[in-house]
Amino acid sequence: MGFSFAGIELTDLADYYGMGPWIIVPLNSSGVATFTTSSFDGTQVPVIAHYLGDANNAPSNGSMTEILTPIGTVTTLTSSANSVPYATPVVFTATALDNTGAPVQGGVLFQTGSQAIARVSVDGTGHATWVNGDAGYFLPVGANNMTATFIPSPTGYQQSSASVIETFTSLGVTPPPTFAPAAGVYSSNQQVVLNDSMNSAAIYYTTNGTTPAVGSAIPFQAGFTIPVDATETIQALAVAPGYSPSSVASAAYTINLPPPSFTIAATAVSLTPGATTGNTSTISVTPSGGFAGSVALTATVSSSPSGAAYPPTLSFGSNSPVNITGTTAETAVLSIYTTAPASSALSYPKRHGVSWHTAGGTALACLLIFGIRARRRNGRTMLGMLIFLVAFIGSLLACSGGGASGGGGGGNPGTTPGNYSITVTGTSGTITETRSVTLTVQ
User: What does each C-alpha distance from 292 to 138, 262, 321 come to in angstroms?
Assistant: First the structure.
């Protein structure tokens, strides 16, 4: 390709701005310089001629844009086999030539539909190949529209493409998916695992009543989990590489959640009367069915040993109520107070034999009866003395008996040992739950 300018020095635009070497072309006798090249890269090339000037003429510039028509190319595509089982290493060969039949430089993009598979450089004979299974990619079962597009490099050549329909046959039918747990009625939310006997299978599923289909959504690898927190039906199909899709399997789940509530748990307590350590029970309140709120706790002694004295007293202190705000249990402490035994006041022990009260009273009575002169005794006087004597001796005997019984004791025996049952009650609105706590007093 040649360019003629009445001036002189030719360059492309990049060189003109200092990005490449100048090409010096001398003027002929007519003031014309000619530049010929076949190395332009592109379809629109700006060209600038710069006259350097001389002693009689000032420097000057001239420019133009050369429009180049790309050279046409022809691409063909063949395969080494067709209608073969899945994963067969079929060889696809693309050939790119210009309109004269000469090989061209560049690369070939292999793709199926809009999915690019590989880009392969064209060799010196204009060929580029790709083998099914290269880099671990296998064309799927069924008819595949395989396309090879020639991309020239450098530019100056036209792109061209060719395609073939390549069919791979199935290795069999994928088994349908399985569900665990199985379909049924449940009283709690479920985590359903969708699986398949072929671990490589991809699973498509729906829960909105529509039938799943291959390519209808993003598939999941076998062994994934679906949370089921409401009544619904899961429909699913599986497809393993090289196999046809399975039939659609379905599982219906009915979720009947219990109303919001809570449960109470408590730890048993064993202590000695009057103990101030180890005398507490931990009360746990666990929500269920989405319960949230405040639970007031109370406790009473519901059973005790026969004839028990000084029964335990109970207190939650500031631990009640407990507030439930999440799904985990909240706790409170129940304090149990008992009475230690105490000794009675000091008393005199009982002595064997006749007490001094009795002996002294008898002596005094004898003195009164016999110490009076016989001459002064008469019937009336004797009767009075006998009455006085009976009363006096009776009072002495009473005092003597009281002293003897007083020597036996009294005092505080403390809380009666044995097994007690304590009933803990939790109340929140209309919900009431109870739990029994075992108390052993040693």
Answer: 55, 9, 13
